[in-house]
Design brief:
Elements: E1 5-9, H1 14-25, E2 29-34, H2 37-51, E3 55-59, H3 65-79, E4 84-87, H4 102-130, E5 133-138, H5 142-145, H6 151-171, E6 176-183, H7 189-192, H8 196-205, H9 214-225, E7 236-239
Parallel strand pairs: 1-2, 1-4, 2-3, 4-5, 5-6, 6-7
Helix pairs in contact: 1-2, 1-9, 3-4, 4-6
The structure holds NADP nicotinamide-adenine-dinucleotide phosphate.
NADP nicotinamide-adenine-dinucleotide phosphate is lined by residues 9-16, 33-36, 39, 60-63, 88-91, 111, 138, 140, 183, 185-186, 188-191.
Length: 245
Amino acid sequence: MTRRVAIVTGASRGIGRAIAERLAADGMDVAICGTREETIEPVAVELAAAYGVAVHAQAVDVSNAEQIQSFVKGVAKRFGRLDVLVNNAGITRDGLAMRMKAAEWRQVLDTNLDSVFFAAQAALRPMMKARFGRIISLSSVVASMGNPGQANYCASKGGVDALTRSLAREVGSRGITVNAVAPGFIRTDMTDQLDDDARATIDNQIPAGRMGKPEEIASVVAFLAGDDAGYVNGQILQVNGGLYM
Ligand code: NAP
């Protein structure tokens, strides 16, 4: 039997890298992308050596509809199947709404939301044919809570939640599940910009008393990607140490 094939976008570092590593460890062939060849290729070399699976790496700008669609179609063709799509790539361009530039709004929506739609659209064809598929997108706790200075980011992740539910209804009868994972604060480059005071304030609001680790998101994604989650569909799984409940 051939191995299952998973795509993970934005896997050069942070949560995406942890997800790619976990799915490879679980025995899947993986295709990963990031914005730069120099930073995504070494991850592929490392994972292939560590887990003995096939790893394809490519520089892709997910905010470009043509690029993300041709990446997804190319992976399905190259491996002859596509079982799992993890829409992880994301950015922040924070600023108060009154001062937010149109480009900051557009860039975040294109990268965090439009990319999810176009990637899923391309992935659905092979998944429908196989009557099996798992689409998992990274949302955020702030889609439910809101966050000052992140109108663009919160809107993009709220869009991911609504898109997830809608797609789940469309394709649920075809053996395909569509879910999202909404992390709270996770230690990555995205949160490393916070100073010590801001980090202490955040830790105090989290019942777990600390930020999460990328691996703690990867394990939930791995569950959703596997056979045990076949009856979980259209859900936004909150993984935040109790910050929001
Ligand atoms: P990160 O450390 O900043 O890494 C972002 C990843 O996305 C990198 O691999 C980056 O590639 C890639 N990426 C960004 N723009 C891209 C584009 N246009 N095309 C292709 N790849 C692109 O972020 P993270 O903290 O791991 O976050 C991962 C996901 O979880 C995001 O969707 C984020 O919104 C979500 N999330 C994170 C947190 C948190 O606390 N960290 C909380 C809630 C939700 P390069 O290395 O090439 O730039």
